[in-house]
Amino acid sequence: MAQRPWRRAGLKHPSLVALVVLLALALLALSYLPSPPNGDHGRAPSPHVAPAPPAPASLLLAPRPQRDVAITPCGDKPPNRETKRQRGKGRRLRGQRAPTPSPCVDHPCRQGGSPQEDRLCFGETVPPWLSEDDIQKMKLLAHGQVVSKSRVPAHGQVLRIRLHADGDTQPTSPGEDCGDGRCGLIKRSTDLYEVVAFHLDRVLGLNRSLPAVARRFSSPILPYSYTNGASRPLIWWAPDVQHLEDTNNDQNSCALGWLQYQEMLRSHSVAPVAGGTACASIQRGEWGRLALFDFLLQVHDRLDRYCCGFEPDAFEPCVEEMLHEKCRNPSELFLVHILVRKSAPSRLVFIDNAGRPQQPEAKLNFRLLQGIDSFPETAVAVLRSGCLAHRLLKSLYTDQELWESQGGAVGLWPLLQVLERRGQILLRYLQEHNLTVVRDTLH
Fold first, then answer.
1. How far is Cα 227 from Cα 223, in angstroms, rounded to an integer?
2. What is the DSSP string of 143-209?
3. Which residues are 236's β-sheet partners?
4. pTM score, whole prediction
5. pLDDT tens digit string along 42-60?
6. Which of 47, 205, 288, 434 has CA atoms 20 to 30 A from the CA of 347?
7. Nearest C-alpha neighbor of 380 from the set 436, 313, 328
8. Cα–Cα distance measured from residue 216 to residue 338, given in angstroms and rounded to the nearest whole number
């Protein structure tokens, strides 16, 4: 019997060849198909918390929500890394889920996110760095009824108000003083950065600033300039802050000169200072906390009110008040706003923390760090994590008045990136000067 040509050539049956070719073409076509959309099925797990019911536009504080319990270094759930078993080395399977980008690497929310999307990004839980006491004071500041007002001597644009919170069992009398902790200071609308400073203090684990919120006022008790619809910072009034009796130096608990301060840092001891009974018990680690905080915010008033650490512009108060000229004579330089509380004399209190968010990097004041040889471990760890800006967003979301007045995450992000950048500059400074970090022993 004559052999067919395809058998003489050693080929398989034509139908098998065609089947193999068709199968190869089908697999090739499948590889070019688009991946299925992320609908309700097959959605990759989100790094953010699950959606929550809509919340009121006011401060998200009452009632006390459930606190975060399991939190990664960036405060988010870790990305899902489920994969199928892989054969061979170096081959990527289509079934592998790509890790979700960390929100600490890029902007955590979509540009122009809606309020619902913001809740998905930042959640309704109170961040763990805000204490129960912080929450209660923030609720009082944000929602308390204004029952009286008074001026603060030598501070023309600051108004002290007495507040009555809903649910208080004891009536609040307008004539009472502020010894019970129910008062706050209304500052200028241009000082809203001080609210950001409060949250920075808590995120870094310093816990030396007084609670602060943004608020719009409508009380008829207040002057019209305070009720014109602009958001203003309201700072909790600490009734036991110690002040010198000297009216020219009442913004200090003790009078401390620059040279005394530097000698104290070098000798690891307490320098003899006027009013020293108030400052003799200040822990050495407090100065590292203060220097780190002031450098990130570029607050000069405490450690360098004379602007000796950079070349100020002509319109700077230190130039207009002829303070900058005193830089030539260090014996005439004094620290300001060095305060402690009677209830915690070993801890500094940070006030007037508005700082300078627009200070360019070329004019960053490194004099604020002079003499400091160690910094708090917790704060440095936050800076090293690269998560400072994201944690601040999560914290600032609890203050809805500030959040909305500044345009939400999109409006706040450039400012927080400045703080993140300054943190990286500070870390480089620590490395270049071989400075150390110390464990936080006093909270």
1. 7
2. HPEEEEEEEETTEEEEEEEEEE-TT-SSPPPTTS-STTS-EEEE--GGGTHHHHHHHHHHHTT---B
3. 184
4. 0.75
5. 333 333 333 333 333 334 4
6. 434
7. 436
8. 30
